[in-house]
Amino acid sequence: MVTDVENWKSEVYGNEIRDRLFEFAEAGFDSIPDDERDAWFERFKWWGLYHQRNGQEGYFMMRIGTPNGVLEPGQLRVVGEIADEYARGPGTNPIFGDAYADFTTRQSIQLHWIELSDVPAIFEKLEEHDLSTQQACGDSWRNIVGNPVAGKDGQEVIDAWPVIRELNETFKGNDDHANLPRKWKVSVTGSADGSGQGDINDLAFEPAYKTAGGDGAPRGSEAGDAVGFNVRVGGGLARNEPRLARDIDVWVPPERVPDVAGGLSALFRDHGDREDRYNARVKFLVDEWGAAEVRETLQEEYVDFELQTAGRDVREEYTYNAGEGERNDLIGVHDQKDGRNFVGLNVLVGRMGADDVLELADLAAEYGSGEVRLSQRQNVIVTDVPDDALDEFLDEPLLEHYSPDPSPFMRGSVACTGTEFCSLSIVETKNRQVRFARWLKANVELPDDVDEFHVHLSGCTASCAQPQIADVSLRGMKTRKDGDPVEALDVGLGGGLGEDPQFARWVTQRVPVDEVPGAIANLVERFAAERDAGESFRAFVARHDDDELDAFVDPKETDYEDPMMHNTKRTWYPYAEDDGMEDAPSPPADD
Amino acid sequence: MTTRLRVLDDGAWISVDDSREVRVSELWRLDAPDLCECALTDLVVENFQSVGVDGSTVEVQVYGQCIACGEAGTTGWVPVGRVRGGEFAELARSAVRSSRARPPRQHVPDR
Ligand code: HEM
Ligand code: SF4
Ligand SMILES: [Zn+2]
């Protein structure tokens, strides 16, 4: 028996939702019949609108999908203006204020406190500037990710940006692929640094060389080889079931990518599990079938040309989020292939006030081309800055806060949405990670030669902050402290991507949140004292067993104080003065 | 009268008659020998798996973790509240609930 969600999807889904959404927006939130609310909230996701949690009735999170994180000149300003005008609600965040934008781990943008009645105006403004929320959530092709500086990166094997653009144009709003059993996350990377994070996506295209003359021909020089992509399928982190995408032994030239991607999406559409949403992601289908059967089915039923076998990849060069080496992230000044520079700026936990967004948009126009790009580490990159403008740009006061050269604890921080807005959450996240990072920066000393230390905090097992691929992984839990329930975090260690990706091992469970900074301080101290010369944190973790690591973590209270120890989910908004559910605002009046 | 029951938003909610009523992230005290060996399981509710109704009692199966012993898993059927006269009333948070293997008369493994 298919689920209610599947029934709703078979009644109305995809593009057609839009007209109804606009009718409800026109007539007001209350015009959604009570007995259809569950169905409409589910469907609105397809247009990028996710109802916020209880206590915030009538307010929506809106996700704007920016393919590969690319914001063309002028688009960041539009996002800032929309955030400023519409992303204001009854709650004020004590760190970030009243109106802000979140840059996400999948190179998208999230706005909060959006009212249904404002949606048509927001869509109109977005669409005037070629931006869209279509398929940003829901069971379909999600925002396509990759190396954000595709097309500009000095270290590129192949320019993936035209490929991503074509996929986006082909599969956004495409009725044949609009209703999939579950979300479909695609990564296309052309650089040799691994910054597209293909391994944790449903479908990954990674740069690879194919020797001309086909299999068996002697390996030619790289110059004589064709450059294209190897294909992997079935990665994902959610729900205590993390999987790396599996190699299906296929190489495709760039012009065939849409055929293979469409074939695999159709295979998922037809064969994914529509009876159990927990078993629906393609990772479980790959578990069941194995990579060979996926390849065989793709070849026999979904493409009309002979698939080639996998080519020679460049995985041994991957450094992004890999634990050591250059370019763990894209922060700082880097060469573009046209001689200009891209400058990666750290946005702590991905959140930027609307005023700052607008100022950054101006700076990007003044010093660069006006374009900016978003990374999967929730950071922003200003591109196209010529050498002679660089010093002046780096001196801008805004860059003191959004630094191109931040502390490892600041640049390594990633955090999800958490109890502030998210129904699934168990703990407060973004503000907490800001407090953690500030405390660690002030109190903890990494060895001199260690300049990367990634801490990812996710509020639940959905893993939106990608905790399993961090040096220190934090995941929301509860525990009792002196008998009282308090927010807690499970601590995992040693995760990362790179040539041989590894998920963190969960070594210490249920640490009360106020003891986590002390635990990390103790851990870093042991690492500094006992590491081999030049050893990375990830390598250090790899050579210790779970019990040894658990002993290193050693939670303790410090002068770090956590104001959000209580059940922040029982508040209507954790930071409100009167935070009880009984003080929750009523749904916004229609204006 | 039939009661419409659903698990929504990837297991974040139990919806009763189209209203989101029971949420994750609470701590429940459970008599659940099937889940762990504690005399009383102290369960963090993480994801609803399925929901059903037996007479007027709404019951769920939930994935979670006992914070006393660390054991994680899916419970048997656990009561969360009652529907009376068309209104849902959630059990008191402090109530001790017992988990049982037998499914309620109507149930949906839906999410
Ligand atoms: C209202 C807030 C949010 C809700 C309710 C939500 C919900 C979820 C859920 C249910 C999953 C598990 C997916 C599955 O089982 O297939 C998930 C995973 C994920 N979400 Fe979110 N999410 C939220 C915010 C975010 C944010 C801010 C980001 C950043 C773009 C994000 C990115 C991701 C990523 C990267 C995963 C990874 C899991 C995987 O690879 O399987 N989500 N989210
Ligand atoms: S990881 Fe969990 S708490 Fe965080 S945003 Fe995702 S669903 Fe919400
Ligand atoms: Zn127990």
TrEMBL record, chain A:
Residues 137-302, 410-544 form the Nitrite/sulphite reductase 4Fe-4S domain. It comes from the Archaea. InterPro entries: NIR_SIR_4Fe-4S, NiRdtase/SiRdtase_haem-b_fer, Nit/Sulf_reduc_fer-like_dom_sf, NO2/SO3_Rdtase_4Fe4S_dom, NO2/SO3_Rdtase_4Fe4S_sf, NO2/SO3_Rdtase_FeS/sirohaem_BS. Keywords: 4Fe-4S, Heme, Iron, Iron-sulfur, Metal-binding, Oxidoreductase. Residues 52-89, 96-128, 334-397 form the Nitrite/Sulfite reductase ferredoxin-like domain. Belongs to the nitrite and sulfite reductase 4Fe-4S domain family. This is Nitrite and sulfite reductase 4Fe-4S domain-containing protein. It comes from Halorubrum kocurii JCM 14978.
Automatic annotation (TrEMBL), chain B:
It holds the Pfam family DUF8134. Residues 1-102 form the DUF8134 domain. It comes from the Archaea. This is DUF8134 domain-containing protein.
